[in-house]
UniProtKB/TrEMBL annotation:
This is CCA-adding enzyme. It catalyses: a tRNA with a 3' CCA end + 2 CTP + ATP = a tRNA with a 3' CCACCA end + 3 diphosphate; a tRNA precursor + 2 CTP + ATP = a tRNA with a 3' CCA end + 3 diphosphate. ATP binds at G28, R31, R112, D155, R158, R161, R164. Keywords: ATP-binding, Magnesium, Metal-binding, Nucleotide-binding, Nucleotidyltransferase, RNA repair, RNA-binding, Transferase, tRNA processing. Residues 23-142 form the Poly A polymerase head domain. The keyword RNA-binding applies. It comes from Anoxybacillus ayderensis. Pfam families: PolyA_pol, PolyA_pol_RNAbd, tRNA_NucTran2_2. GO terms for biological process: RNA repair; tRNA 3'-terminal CCA addition. Its cofactor is Mg(2+).
């Protein structure tokens, strides 16, 4: 019996078949269904050409029409429907020069990367598996469809995908696949850093990351990753923790801490600026927060929303248990969690002291902020004014 997600998508298959076309579920959703893992997006392969698909369904988006892909929207859910295709000669080890639409499911499955991703399922839940993908899943093996050297010369990123799947599934590489990665790893130099970063991030977030990192070193693929060629010793430490990062910030922060990356080295990975900023904040915190006891009131206040990322990364690095819930309660119990929550502002202080703005004002606000944070004064406007005047007198007398 198909699960609910496939049941919902059946209408797309049935509609295509009613119009005389072949149609099958394909790709990662079929693989994960066989493995009884959570299923992501459901993709459909069909003998119908893109224009035919768009003529059949009322709601479509031509998301990748040159490559045969049309987004079909059924009952508010989007499905990628792609025409059976075979690919011409690849250019630059990353993309086919041309794509030819075909009417054969076999030819379509033949072009895919790994046997476990080359399984199709029809509307009755029956599997079409011409390349032994189901057997590979049973043996927990990642192997290419056909000759591994050919597959990796077509698209060198497939080597990173292989290790990413190791990290996510805990599978092993087939002997031929592993040997081909060792032989052709240098082809990664032709792949855009952004594409490599996507696969590497998924690898860092996988439950079997340590196994994938070991293979990264064993196959020497790490030599062709930005800023990691001289970091083999550091990489060996990366997989030591059994704690799986819960967020991409934590994945990159853990890597950056272990291999000693700074902002400039993170930029070589072409990561988004906001991610580099967030990772940098975590790294700054990890310089002095190494145990639960290091979470002072000031540290809680400074890092606030980043506490979960910092704490989980700290725990992974130092072999500790993360105390996220406790620390978040402590942060939420602070008198203020942001300077904006102060009951007094710069305009109030300028009026109170009848002075022009200057460095004294920033210093005064900071002093008030610390006093409220450490419960030396209540966060109430009149009491803060009184405290500010008293504090000013003390400094003048001093």
């Amino acid at each position: 019996m198909m699960n609910e997600q496939f049941q919902q998508a059946l209408s797309v298959i049935e509609t295509l078949k009613r119009h005389g076309h072949e149609a099958y579920f394909v790709g990662g959703a079929v693989r994960d269904y066989i493995l009884q893992r959570p299923i992501g997006d459901i993709d459909i392969a069909t003998s119908a050409h893109p224009q035919e698909v768009m003529a059949i369904f009322p709601k479509t988006v031509p998301v990748g029409i040159a490559h045969g892909t049309v987004m079909v929207i059924e009952r508010g859910i989007s499905y990628e429907v792609t025409t059976f295709r075979k690919e011409g000669r690849y250019e630059d080890y990353r993309r086919p020069k041309d794509v030819t639409f075909v009417r054969s499911l076999y030819e379509d499955l033949q072009r895919r990367d790994f046997t476990m991703n080359a399984i199709a399922m029809n509307e009755h839940g029956e599997m079409i598996d011409p390349f032994g993908g189901i057997e590979a899943l049973k043996r927990r093996i990642i192997e290419t469809v056909g000759d591994a050297a050919e597959r990796f010369n077509e698209d060198a990123l497939r080597m990173m995908r292989a290790l990413r799947f190791v990290s996510q599934l805990g599978f092993s590489l087939s002997t031929g696949t592993k040997q081909a990665i060792m032989q052709y790893g240098h082809l990664l130099q032709h792949i855009a850093v952004e594409r490599i970063a996507v696969e590497f991030e998924k690898l860092l977030l996988g439950p079997f990351m340590s196994k994938a990192i070991e293979l990264l070193m064993e196959t020497n693929l790490f030599l062709y990753l930005p800023e990691l060629a001289t970091k083999k010793g550091e990489l060996a430490q990366l997989g030591a923790s059994s704690l799986v990062p819960a967020h991409r910030i934590e994945a990159w922060a853990r890597l950056a801490f272990v291999v000693h990356f700074d902002n400039q080295q993170l930029k070589k990975w072409k990561l988004p600026n906001h991610l580099i900023r967030d990772v940098s904040i975590c790294l700054k915190a990890l310089e002095h927060i190494r145990s639960l006891a290091d979470w002072t009131i000031d540290a809680l206040y400074e890092y606030g929303p980043y506490i979960p990322h910092i704490e989980r990364t700290r725990a992974a690095l130092y072999g500790d248990e993360p105390h996220v819930s406790l620390l978040m309660k402590q942060w939420e119990a602070l008198p203020i969690r942001d300077r904006k929550e102060l009951a007094i502002n710069g305009h109030d202080l300028l009026a109170l002291f009848e002075r022009k703005s200057g460095p004294w004002l920033a210093e005064m606000i900071e002093n008030i902020e610390r006093a409220v944070l450490h419960r030396q004064v209540e966060n109430e406007k009149e009491k803060l004014k009184e405290w500010a005047v008293c504090n000013q007198r003390r400094e003048n007398n001093y």
